[in-house]
Amino acid sequence: MLNCRACLWQCVQPFDRPANIQRLRRNGIPLLRQSQQRFQSTDVRKTRTRPHYLTRVEKLSNDRNEPWQNSAVAENQKKRERAALLSSRTDVIASAERRETPNLMKLGKRDTTMSETDWNRRKRELRFLQDPLDLAQFVQAELRKDRVEEMKQLVGYALKVYNDMKKRGQFPDSYTYTILLRGLSINAQNSGVLEKALSVYHSLFAPNSRVTPSIIHTNAALRVCARALDMDALWGIAAKIPERGPAAANATTYNTIINAIRQNMLLARPSGESAEEAAARKERGIMEARRLWEDIAGKWREADLVIDEELVCSMGRLLLLGPRPRDWDDVLSLIEQTMDIPRLVPRLGTPERKEAGFPQLRAPNVPEDYKFDDDHLAPGQPGIRGEEFLPFAGSLAKNLAFVKPENNTLSLIQEACLKIAAPKAAQKYWDMLADQYKITPDVNNLNQQLRNLRQNRASAAAVELLQKDMIGKGVRPPPGTFRIAMSTCVRDKNNHNSLKNGSQILHSMSKVYADVDAKTVGMYADLANTFPLAKGQDLIDALTNLYPFVRNLRVQMGIAAHEQEGAEKRKRRVARLTGEARQEALMALRKVYGVYDRLLMSNLIAEEQKQEFKKERARLSAFILKETQQDRERNVEKKVQNLGRQEEVSPEDFDQHSYLADEAQEGEEQVEPERSSEKRNWRDHASEDSRGSWRTRNVKPADQRKPWESRS
User: Fold this and answer.
1) What are the extents of the domains in the chain?
2) Which end of the chain is more exposed for a tag (fewer CB within 10 A), N or C?
3) Which sign, positive or negative, has the C-alpha torsion 433, 434, 439, 444?
């Protein structure tokens, strides 16, 4: 037998069986009927390893580009998918055309809600997805696409499969519930998702449930409730969380609850709410978060919980929304407790703060009942608030696993110092985190530092930060950064060099952006208009600096390309400003016109020097009037279209001041207006019309008049 090659191959063949017979022998003649075939993918019913599809769901659940964020589809994955389908072997295509593949034979009938075109498209896709792994990856890729209607259908199909599993005795396991709840959480924008998620989650606690609920299921259900802004359902789920065990709360659980409280404070505002009522509502949310942090700190102290920077910063940003200055000050205590970063500002309401010479916070936007933190001094009142954020002392503090600060922490500290008016402490924190913890500031950190400099009226430091720490290091600042820097110069207008600092910010913006920001230009014009120490040369320099930016704004507003000169001629397509951006550019040009007026209507320069500036002002005035008239005509056309008039009404025939006549005739009889086609007949003094004018009406003849001397 061993000498026979065919017999030897028949003996060896069972030991060398391929992993997927159907894939390798797709063109072969099946030996068994379709009902008797058994695929190797069904041999193994259970696996001890972690399923690969669960990790994909976790990545999708924690990804920023999930459907919940209404993000765009990853075009790269779609192209790779199409390229993989087009690069399939020709024999596979031919085989698929000759007969239906096994997965299409099990497809069933077409759903009536799906069109014939979509049905055929799905069948063509499934012909090339014989491998279960390829099919799973294709489903995950389709889930990542932002298709609202298909997402709703997939959610419904997933719940249908879940119910069919229970009817057929295929009980879902823990992974099934995880995928369902996370899939519902990333599609929480659809209606009815919250009820379905609660139904699936509460079924885990049924007496006949074969799955033990874990904290992963709880976090997914809490995420759905938080995104649906249903705090009652959220607290109902949180009440079932045990104190200890595998189902106990972790950092993700507390982070979800804290973010839900913050969202509820910001979004769940009743209509007609007063400032005192809003402060009281925020106070209740802050107290809930404080009680929650006592539980977090206690578990962290006993090593039952691992906290991270995301949780700490979520609690800190919730405190920044509090109605009391004490809540803002407790952010620095929170950082000291969790990250072992010492406070550089004494606590609010302590004698050390008064001895350090810190002034009392003005807090202009805070109600009177919440401004001062001396309520604890009254008899019968509890102690000072913020005890839950005090650092742990003794040997216990040495064994704690402190959180490592990152960029999010740096922004949080800068914002807290801004609200408690501690600019010097903000700079010290900045230097400490940059030097000791090696934190490289990002754009958000630098913007927050600029806001602190603006509060301190440090325009020179703002220019240095913009040029050295951002542009000098290759960071491209957004337009908002230049606005913050320019507003620092406007706030520092009593400084002799504030106008020069603003000019440097304008030149820095021109190096970064080809199209300037209209708001920044308008702020610089405001600075030149309100600069109290301005001399003639200062205004001339300001107008000289503004000249190229005015031309750039005119280009953005749609000026003809042939009006550009020299180096300003660019072979690029400029997007025409529309809507609010157009109005901002027009307002900036009006402010520049005000700078011309201030220079020409003063005695700061000689009359001979004013001629060129008068010409430029006239050109700018003509452009502003032309653009204003065009905008008015566009508004008239929009009004005509909105009224739905059948007859064509030209802008010239439309009376722009008709509202004055309406106000004058209110409550009186409507008089038919004079037609524009009829000419008015003016009378002269020699007219024989007996009506007379205001000078000749009821005048006696000359011989019958009394002399002026005889009139009393």
Assistant:
1) 75-145, 514-565+574-639
2) C
3) positive
